[in-house]
Every structure is written in structure tokens, then in C-alpha cells.
Amino acid sequence: MVKHVVCRFDELDVGKITPGKIGRSEVIVSKLPSGEVRVVGGRCPHQGAALEHGRISGRTSSDTPNEMEFCNYGETLRCPWHGFEFSLIDGCPVVPGAKNWPMNLRIFDAKVEGNDVVVTL
Asked: What are the φ and ψ backbone dihedral angles of 53, each rounded to 5 degrees?
């Protein structure tokens, strides 16, 4: 097992994308509103766009016509090319019925050690 330091914890803010590397592979790192650190593959599973140029935001939700609620702030990653949105919680696309799609973000198990964000492979 090899440890990879992908970035420093003090570089992270909720809603900010921080690029990093695991070996030669690009990843992006973000801090969720819960304080948990999320490290995901740096390329969109749709057509390979560089996710470091994407955006992290939330979503809108509604059960009633003409009423909208903003939710999941800091938990939704939007691809810069086609606007595909993915949950940073589970890596799944954020569209109804997408739980079984093969197009998910690769999420790495990350730990904070001191001030380093570390992925062990």
C-alpha cells in the first residue's frame, strides 16, 4: 500500500475545487459542508472533461409547482463541458433514476493526517 499526499488540508474550502495528483493521475479535492474531505477522479466519466474547471454548488428541488428550494450546497459537482452534475456524497449522477448508470465519479478513500490529505492505494 502506497500513501499519496494530494494536497494540504488548509488549502480546502467548502465549494472550492483543489486539483491534486495520485501518481500521474489527476484528481480533485473538496471539503464538504460536513467537514469531510472528498477526493475524486479528475476526469468526467461522460467524455473526459477536466473536472478542475467545473463548479461545486447545490441543487434545486421542488415538490410543488412554482416553489423551489436550494439544497445540498457544496455537495454537487458540475462538469465544465456538458453540465453533467454528480453527487460528491456517493459519486452518482444527479438526475432521477441514475443510481444504476455506469457513469459515476471515482471516489478515493481520503484521510487527513496532520495538515496533509492522504489517499492510500
From this structure: -95, 5
Global pTM reads: 0.88
Contacts of residue 113, defined as CB under 8 A and 6 or more positions apart, other chains included, come to: none
How far apart are alpha carbons 91 and 104 in whole angstroms?
Answer: 5
Residue 82's CB is within 10 A of a number of other CB atoms, namely 10
Domain CATH for 94:
2.102.10.10
pLDDT tens sequence across 30-71: 999 999 999 999 999 989 999 999 999 988 788 889 888 877
Query: C-alpha cell of 48?
Result: 473526459
Give the residue numbers spanning the domain of 57: 3-120
- Tally of domains in the chain: 1
Rounded to whole angstroms, the maximal C-alpha distance in the chain is: 52
Identify which of 119, 103, 112 has the alpha carbon closest to the alpha carbon of residue 31. 112
3-class DSSP state of 53: helix
